[in-house]
Amino acid sequence: MVSSSGLLVAIALFRVIVFTSLLSAEKTDSGILLVSDIKSGERHAREYCAMYDICGKRSDGEVLNCPYGSPSVKPDDLLSSKIQSLCPTISGNVCCTEFQFDTLRAQVQQAIPFLVGCPACLRNFLNLFCELSCSPDQSLFINVTSTSEVKGNMTVDGIDFFVTDTFGEGLYDSCKDVKFGTMNTRAIDFIGAGAKTFKEWFAFIGQKAAPGFPGSPYAINFKSSVPELSAMEIMNVSVLACDDTSLGCSCGDCPLSPACSSSEPPSPHKKDSCSFRIGSLKVTCVELSLVILYIILVSAFLGWGLFNQTRERRRHAPTTEPLLNVADDGEINIIDLQKNGKLAPKVQGMVSQASHDVQISVIQGYMSSFYRRYGIWVARNPTLVLCSSLAVVLLLCLGLMRFRVETQPEKLWVGPGSKAAEEKQFFDSHLAPFYRIEQLIIATMPDPQHGKSPSIVTEDNIQLLFEVQKKVDGISANYSGSVVSLSDICLKPLGQDCATQSILQYYKMDPDNYDGFGGVQHVEYCFQVT
Fold first, then answer.
1. Residue 138: DSSP 8-state
2. Contact by Cβ (8 Å): 140, 261
3. In terms of DSSP bridges, do strands 482-485 and 32-34 run parallel, antiparallel, or are they unpaired?
4. Which of 44, 246, 397, 505 lies 20 to 30 Å from 56, alpha-carbon distance?
5. For the Niemann-Pick C1 N-terminal domain, which residue ranges apply (predicted)?
């Protein structure tokens, strides 16, 4: 009996020692707690969180998540709608509080200007961090590997994020060619340090940023395979390609899209095709043959007409006698013919003989008869002819009622059914009509003695530009009874001011800032070549 009680005391003491040793093993000198995966069935399950709520802040104000696992929570309607606006793939329960979500939204806002040019890339990028922060199954693919103590509270210091290679490759492929328009370079150079693969990009994203620098407040180790005998799963959210029709990107941001592939170039001419050069002009044998055939046909036609004309002259030359030479005795002349109004019998006979000898074609005879009768009719009916002619002219001028002066260059140079017109109509209907640029270029006149233009960067010229800008801003016109000014139709991307690119922007477009900003020396410094 004594031995049995001693054995029970020994077992109880062993349990206390083991429990104490486990607690001491979890504490280190650096204050970092290594979290084991002993309760994998409890910690890594659906509708279970690996991190929930905020438990501390770094010295730079970056918040740190709590490392304690807990069941996912059903958000209220307001928070649910806010999460849906940024993370449409997450519904139902979530693993983030409203403060956590606001922090997530503020952090991803920094990357949106770089990726907004390609909606598919931006959607994939947001899905990655939405799943990391708010997914209800967060514990399935996130494992907290280390924690740190901040002001007495344990906070997350490092995690393992299990993501499939398919998602990583899809995310990188959709974003690798996205351009950052402001710098005219790839966006991946800014948000991925110029990563060449998705693994390099994930390594850059997962780096723990030092206090005061942008980046993740804790280390993120991206992995593509889960440990053996673990209840964890790899996150495999659907990824959108950059050529997706619902969230398609422009050809500049997704050049590999089938819609952006250029048409096949025309097949090159065969090497044995007949061609030769005439000076700097390359001519094919077919083109030369057509030119020669055209010259032969034109020459044959002109030769045939010349031949017929010469033959007719030769045939009628011996039998035709001038009418003025008919009177052998000199009794008939032009004046007598005009006075008497009739021809002498001898002349009439010669005219009849000449008319009989000259043979005209059927077409010439018809045209001669028609225009003779038409001339007689016009001479007898002048009023009717003038009125009918005026009526025809007025009728043809009715089209002027629909005449409109076209001032849009895209309608002057592009056909309404062309591919370019269809693309512009699609752009205008889905975004907004593209702005038109009006330019005013000012230059100095060359010096007549030296032939060189003086510098345009002078105080007088800058003051002149202020006056010109003031007149341009004051431009107005009367349109349909209302006064329209430049500010009513100009592009205003940043507020109430018209978008203007001018040297005057160095002075904020205000002449009162000229002296305070250094005058002409300020512009000269900006224009100097380094």
1. H
2. no
3. unpaired
4. 44
5. 47-282
Check pLDDT > 90 for residue 130: yes
CA 35 to chain centre: 51
Contact at 8 Å (CB) between 55 and 154? yes
pTM: 0.47
Region of 193 on the Ramachandran plot (φ > 0 left; ψ -120 to 50 alpha; else beta): left
Read off the amino acid at residue 105.
R
> Residue holding tokens 């031949």?
307
Q: Is 320 helix (H, G, I), strand (E, B) or coil?
A: coil
Measured between alpha carbons, how far is 245 from 243 in angstroms, rounded to an integer? Answer: 6
The pLDDT score that the predictor gives to residue 270 is: 52
Q: Under a CB-based contact definition with an 8 Å cutoff, are residues 456 and 527 in contact? A: no
Per-residue pLDDT tens over the stretch 63-77? 999 988 889 999 998
For residue 382, list its beta bridge partners.
none
Is residue 150 within 8 Å of 164, Cβ to Cβ?
no
DSSP string over 171-240: HHHHHTT-EETTTTEETHHHHSTT-SSHHHHHHHHTSBPPTTSSSBSSEEEEESSPPTT-----B-----
The listed range with the strongest mean pLDDT (40-44, 122-126, 339-343) is 122-126
Backbone angles phi, psi at 450, to 5 degrees: -100, -15
Would you call 296 helix, strand, or coil by DSSP? helix
Alpha-carbon Rg for the chain in angstroms: 47
Type of residue at 461: N
Residue of 114, 99, 107 lying closest to 176 (CA atoms)? 114
Q: Note the pLDDT of residue 502.
A: 87
Count CA atoms within 13 Å of residue 91 on its CB side: 2
| pLDDT (mean) for 386-393 | 94
- Sequential DSSP letters for 419-453: HHHHHHHHHHHHS-PPP--------PPPPTTT--P
Q: How many CB atoms lie within 10 A of CB 308?
A: 10
Q: 3-class secondary structure for 370-421? A: HHHHHHHHHHHCHHHHHHHHHHHHHHHHHHHHHCCCCCCHHHHHCCCCCHHH
